[in-house]
Each structure stands twice: as C-alpha cells, then as structure tokens.
Amino acid sequence: MVPPPPATYTSGDIEAAKTTACAAWDRAARSTAQASKASATALEADPNWRTPASAAALAAEKRTGIAAISNLRNSIGPATPQSLADPMTNWITLSINELHAMNQRDWTEAERVQEQGNALVDTIASECGLR
Questions:
Q1: Is 2 part of any domain?
Q2: Which residues of the chain carry a pLDDT beneath 70?
Q3: What is the pTM (predicted TM-score) of this model?
Q4: How far apart are CA 104 and CA 77, in angstroms?
Q5: pLDDT value of residue 113
Q6: Number of domains present in the structure of the chain
Q7: Is residue 84 part of a domain?
Q8: Nearest by Cα to 127 from 10, 17, 11
Q9: I need a labelling partner for 1 at 20 to 30 A (CA). Which of 53, 79, 113, 130 fits?
Q10: Structure confidence at residue 122 (pLDDT)
Q11: DSSP state string for 63-118
Q12: Which range of residues forms the domain containing residue 92?
C-alpha cells in the first residue's frame, strides 16, 4: 500500500490558519497578562497566598491559563506554518508544565519553565507581526 501524499495547502489556507493562530495567541497573551497582574496585585497587598483574596486571584490566574492553553491548542491547524506552530506548541507544553509545578508548590521549577516559555514569546509575536 502506498501512503497518501502529504497534504498541500494554498497560500490562502496558510494565511487563514496563521491569522487564526495569531488571533488566539493575542487573546491568550492579553488574558494571561491581565490575570497575572491581578494575581500579583493581590499578593502585593497581602503576601500570604492563603488569604481569600490571594487564593481567589491565583485560582483565576490558573483558570485563565488553562482556558488560554485550550483555545490556543484548538487554534493551531494543519495549515499553520511550522515556524509558528512549533513555538506555539512548545509554549503550550511549557505552560502546562508551569501550572503543574505551581500546583506542586515547586516554585523553582515553575520559574524555570516560565522563563523558557517567555523566551518563545518574542518568536511567536514576531511571526504574528505583533511587534
């Protein structure tokens, strides 16, 4: 049996997939930044992460991150250029790892994977023409 040839996409298909992925990235970046800022503000007001306000802000930050990851993952299509899909997929993986480390209270690991994810932001933003 001969395998089918690889899928081919028109330039319009590729541009539409890129536009979809980049719009999802922009929403993800804005929503997670807003949630992180709210969380940081709550922790600055009271550094005890167990207070109701801090705990609520941290929980909202995690929920926002999970929603952003899910939306972004669903927005990367087969016609999305690899130069965009690869760093986005890597960012998703690192974000999941960061959330896991945060749930485990492994702050060193959370910071390490966050820095790796942050290193991909400029690549993604550049690919999307956002900077």
A1: no
A2: none
A3: 0.86
A4: 32
A5: 94
A6: 1
A7: yes
A8: 17
A9: 79
A10: 92
A11: HHHHHHHHHHHHH--TTS-HHHHHHHHHHHHHHHHHHHHHHTT-HHHHHHHHHHHH
A12: 17-128
Q: At what angle do helices 82-103 and 52-75 cross, to 10 degrees?
A: 150
For residue 110, give every residue at least 6 positions away whose Cβ sits within 8 Å of its Cβ, in sequence order, or none.
98, 101, 102
Amino acid at 43: L
CA 103, 97, 93, 37 torsion: positive or negative?
Answer: positive
- Confidence (pLDDT) at 112: 95
Query: How confident is the model at residue 1, as a pLDDT?
Result: 83
Is 7 within the bounds of a domain? Answer: no
Please check whether residue 28 lies inside any domain of the structure.
Answer: yes
What gap in Å lies between CA 49 and CA 33, rounded to an integer? 19
What is the pLDDT at residue 89? 97
Secondary structure (DSSP) of 4-60: PPPP---HHHHHHHHHHHHHHHHHHHHHHHHHHHHHHHHHHH---TTSHHHHHHHHH
Query: Whole-angstrom Cα distance, residue 43 to residue 53?
Result: 8
Residue labelled with tokens 């999305």: 80
User: Kind and range of the H or E element at 3?
Assistant: none
Structure tokens at 53: 């306000």
